[in-house]
Amino acid sequence: MARTDTRKPNVAGLRPRSKLVHGGTQRSGFDETSEAIFQTSGFVYASAEEAESAFLNDGQRHVYSRFRNPTCAMFEDRLAAYEGAEWAYATTSGMAAVTAALLSFLKAGDRIVAPFALFGSCLHIVKNICPRYGIVPVLIDGTDPAAWEEALSQPTAAVFLETPSNPGLEIVDIKAVCDLAHKAGAKVVVDNAFATPVAQRPLEFGADVVVYSATKHIDGQGRCLGGIILTDAKFGTEVIHPFVRHTGPTISPFNAWVLLKGLETLELRVNAQTQAATRVAEFLSTHPKVTQVLYPTLPSHPQHDLARRQMTSGGTMVAFRIKGGKDESFRFMNDLRMVLISNNLGDAKSLITHPDTTTHAKVAPEDKAKAGIRPDLIRLSVGLEDPQDIVEDLDRALRSA
Prior knowledge:
- The protein starts with 15 loop residues before the first helix and ends with a helix.
- It is of the alpha/beta class.
- α3 packs parallel to α11 and α12 packs parallel to α16.
- The protein folds into two domains: about 250 residues, Aspartate Aminotransferase, domain 2, CATH 3.40.640; about 130 residues, Aspartate Aminotransferase, domain 1 (Alpha-Beta Complex).
- The strands form two sheets. It has a seven-stranded mixed sheet with strand order 1-7-6-5-4-2-3, with helices on both faces.
- Helix content is about 40%, strand content about 15%.
């Protein structure tokens, strides 16, 4: 068999993990092994006629890095190949991806349906920013099928959801919601950051758009911010691209390169972290000072059966409640020696946070209550340390609390 083009390899037929290494590659004339960083704002033309043609045939060649850049394109194309999407656009952050994905098609008078159980900034977009533009938010219990049926019994423009949710790891039935949403005329946007594309592919269950905070597992080492939107070619080019082209939430080439390199090890890292997270969740579930453990593949999880159907693993995140509320939660966290206190997640280092006072500090008390965010809730992002070291650090801190 003839060797594939080394300048732009054809990844058709390769297995997903191989696509994370070779997908989207576009080598320059120097035939570099590691993909190049095209740290440029613009591009030049051989003639005025060529410039005119470039703008008439939008997307056929690079004209300005706000529209498209070779390094950014490699990151977008590689993740799209892995995710099974036709189109992708990388943004400055995960929240830029969420905002652009929604506001690119919503307009005054439209309804957006979403669960209460959302990351604090996502809830702010739906509940507080959308109404400023005349978009009507409808917030429900995302784990209740009847609530979805009622909310989507009338025309709706958008559904936005996280599954598993941040921070309580609630699971939403993606296929059931997509079926209801499409009958109501809605586009379904899924924030898949907690599951990652390694453990869950929302497009396979009928979702229209998938968004990620690439800052999390895709980088996975706490180096830079980034986000990405993935969808079909028609919706991407006709609806989302005009919005992002003119509003400019564009990722920098350097950050795109960091994330591109992060994709090469994404499966290896997430699978190792997931194995560790499973062990940690099992340990915590037997600890006398822990009152509840929320981990998708634990039999005790309220949506355990659903998680098993739509996720290939439980992921890297564990949420749990300890006796004593905020004071004991703080005492426990302050006594950890290896696990770090940080509101980030998906890192090589294990990170822990108290959502009630950090990621959801500005969420209204009534909305916290509906999402199950109480002072006794702790969110743990399991890293790449030896799982036994993580367990021993947690155990020692819990015993001292």
